[in-house]
Amino acid sequence: MPGRPSLAGRCLRGSRRTGGMGGGGSALRVCADHRGGINWLSLSPDGRRLLTGSEDGTARLWSTADGQCCALLQGHESYVTFCHLEDEAAFTCSADCTIRKWDVRTGQCLQVFRGHTSIVNRILVADNQLFSGSYDRTARAWSVDKGQVSQEFRGHRNCVLTLAYSAPWDLPGAPCAEEAGGLLVTGSTDGTARVWQVAGGGCWQTLRGHTGAVLCLVLDTPSHTAFTGSTDATIRAWDILSGEQLRVFREHQGPVICLELVNRHVYSGSADRTVKCWLADTGERVRTFAAHGHSVSALKYHAGTLFTGSGDARARAFDAESGALQRVFRGHAFVINCIQENSKVTELGTGIP
Questions:
Q1: Do 206 and 185 touch, CB atoms closer than 8 A?
Q2: Integer Cα distance of 315 and 328 in angstroms
Q3: Nearest Cα to 94, choosing from 71, 116, 121?
Q4: Is the CB of residue 88 less than 8 Å from the CB of residue 104?
Q5: Using an 8 Å Cβ cutoff, are 269 and 251 in contact?
Q6: Which of 107, 162, 211, 302 is most buried, by CB atoms within 10 Å?
Q7: Strand order in 109-113's β-sheet?
């Protein structure tokens, strides 16, 4: 797209540094063919391919082995907001109000999902279904194979920003689970999260309590608990079956932008330039990760290391147990929107703030 600076996704070393603190990380490969910022990236389940979605209106498939572009996915009429990669298919959504499914071998568009009337900003593929959230205030469920809407979820009074799904078998004993066909949880700028019955499209619970937009959410299916982060600087825990607010996590001094749930710990990244670690079951704050020069926009936990991405264009690796800064990754020019990890490398995506 004209006027957009050329930015790159980078493949960076994700291994733990053995000596000193705060050392630099080195780029293994730079994937630099996009002509605009990278808004999201997704690794294939086998870790061999990387999918990037860009401000330039395209998505690209890359080999993680050598950083070469394998396929250019063209067809969207505006910027790509989000993407998801599986072994056989890639999915992208866009400000052009559509979602597209692509063949990862040929780069051909297999299906265009039409129905949303504004920007589609998030998609989720699970249980042979595609879920989407949009600025048109709705979420939708689609048949992955046919590209047709199977359910529409209406009730939010503003944009739907984030999604999570729980399959029926993840909710054993829940009276609503079987007939509901699973539960979809959505977060919105209207300050609420909603729990929907996928089969019927009905709103099962409305989770009220935030006083600002819900920017992020994660779901702990075994305990049927949702954790939501908001511009009101709090994280809240909810029972998605009863709708009860279980806990409020207070200490951040700015909007909560991203969440990661690992080993009964909740990690939260905020505009206050910190990450905090909380006990999921009690809400107790156990650790604060500082050292960021701007908002924390991305989180990824792997094997005892917490990776963070920030508006200061740097990624950082912290020891998750002690909070010690292990490594700083430099090289990007703009905010880091997304971090994906496999056993060999950590993938970072940058975009325009």
A1: no
A2: 6
A3: 121
A4: yes
A5: no
A6: 162
A7: 80-85, 89-94, 99-103, 109-113
Kindly compute the dihedral angle of the four CA atoms of residues 180, 181, 185, 190, in this order, to the nearest 10 degrees.
-60
State yes or no: pLDDT of 147 exceeds 50. yes
Which alpha helices (DSSP H) does the chain contain, by range?
A: 177-180
* pLDDT tens sequence across 262-300: 999 999 999 999 999 999 999 999 999 998 999 999 999
Segments of 168-314 assigned E as strands: 183-188, 193-197, 203-207, 214-220, 225-230, 234-239, 245-250, 256-262, 265-270, 275-279, 285-289, 296-302, 305-310
Q: Is 283 exposed, middle or buried (0-12, 13-18, 19+ CB in 10 A)?
A: middle
Tell me the C-alpha to C-alpha distance, in Å, between residue 290 and each of 164, 254, 268, 282, 304: 28, 14, 12, 22, 17
Query: Mind listing the pLDDT tens digit for each residue in 172-199?
Result: 666 555 566 899 999 999 999 999 999 9
Q: Are the beta carbons of 155 and 202 closer than 8 angstroms? A: no
